[in-house]
Amino acid sequence: MSHLAVAQTQKLTLDEVVQLAREQSIAGKQASTLQKTNYWKYRSFLADFKPQLSLDGSLPSFTRSFVQVTQPDGTIAFQPVSNNNSVLNLSLSQNIPLTGGSIFIQQQLQRFDNFLNSSTLYNGIPFAIGLTQPLFRFNQMKWDRRTEPLRYAESNQQYIEALEQVALDATGLYFDLLVSQVNLQIAETNRANNDTLFKIAEHKLELGKISQNDLLQLQLSVLNAKKDLASARQTAEVASLKLRSYLNSRNEGSGQPQRFELVVPTQLTDFSVDINQALAEAFANRSASIAFRRQVLEADRDLDKARKENGLNATLNAAFGLSNRGNRPGDVYVRPQDREFVEIQFTLPIMTWGRAQARTETARANQQLTAQTVEQSKRTFEQQIYTQVTLLEMLRQQVKLTAEADQIAQSRYQIAQDRFKLSNLSVTDLGIATQDKDRARRDAILALRDYWQAFYTLRLLTLYDFETNQKIK
């Protein structure tokens, strides 16, 4: 039994190949994994704006050493120490996106053990509330709340685009194999027909109805047909391997490579594409459209950052609460005393030699460049949509014309073959009819390939299914 007879054959349509590629190809799985990563990144971003409860401290914190102690007369003595200074701090914090600061509630307990005199002291903060507030500074949180949702929405659309790109790539590989299979069928048919015609020509030569030159020409056609058949088989095997690899298809049963028998997708759905609707859907659905808005926002953010980080930068730290000490843990909570803390930290650049202005002007120039780049990208994007819509309609007509030409060429070849058998047609005219038949068949398949690739390209560019009139999700 031959290798091809043992191999398992699976009949597939274009829709089935596209679906298989989306579900089991490596490219489809990578798109799904990347989408999960982006989802958890966004979840992490959202969590930063929710209350955070944390417990920190040092337990234990043991020290045994000699430390430097300055005496009243200014001399230095090295005194032995042996102690444990443990601290536990429980805090609940909340970021404030509007101002860029944060507020916290705190409870703390500290224990100090002096092992040299066997004493223990406790210090603690039963309750404290505090605020950390940047003043005159860039508010990163405010801008993140505007850009990160756009980035996440952009990633969602990129996932859909990735699956549509998988469909487009699978379509290309589908037609690579389909064209090679059609060429193989043509080669097999031509080989069989040429064998038959050569045998008929040999009989005609004996009867004197054909010249030796015509016989040699048919013999040459037989040899060329065998050569073309061998080349077509090799091309079909390579194309089949590429499609199997892309679909991540595994061999089953006998372990022989799985063979695909592809169906010619001649059924075209009759639908119209309005250019204005295509443009509207593209700018509503594509990740690039979301990226345009994000890029403009990020340029505005960078300009705001350059302006505010070049001047007075200050931070207000304030806390109010209760504190106490004692020999037992419970003493900390008996009549605690007020505890207040307020400070303002600031930095004021005085001499920067124009650095502040240079940074601001650089950010402003980048903002203008971003706006110009986005505008140019929008125009290029619109041109792509317009070109693809008009191309799709033209290719639909091309499919119809090449299909009609294919039928005519096949019928003409059959007539030419019959006329040759009746000695009513020359070998040269038969060869021309054969070439026209083969070329028309290939043109019909190539027209289908161009149409379906344009069809999936339009889906990719708009993320809209014009067959069912709904967004691709």
TrEMBL record:
<dbReference type="GO" id="GO:0015288">
    <property type="term" value="F:porin activity"/>
</dbReference>
<dbReference type="GO" id="GO:0009279">
    <property type="term" value="C:cell outer membrane"/>
</dbReference>
<dbReference type="InterPro" id="IPR051906">
    <property type="entry name" value="TolC-like"/>
</dbReference>
<keyword id="KW-0813">Transport</keyword>
<dbReference type="GO" id="GO:1990281">
    <property type="term" value="C:efflux pump complex"/>
</dbReference>
<keyword id="KW-1134">Transmembrane beta strand</keyword>
<dbReference type="GO" id="GO:0015562">
    <property type="term" value="F:efflux transmembrane transporter activity"/>
</dbReference>
<comment type="similarity">
    <text>Belongs to the outer membrane factor (OMF) (TC 1.B.17) family.</text>
</comment>
<dbReference type="InterPro" id="IPR003423">
    <property type="entry name" value="OMP_efflux"/>
</dbReference>
<keyword id="KW-0812">Transmembrane</keyword>
<dbReference type="Pfam" id="PF02321">
    <property type="entry name" value="OEP"/>
</dbReference>
<protein>
    <submittedName>
        <fullName>TolC family protein</fullName>
    </submittedName>
</protein>
<keyword id="KW-0998">Cell outer membrane</keyword>
<keyword id="KW-0472">Membrane</keyword>
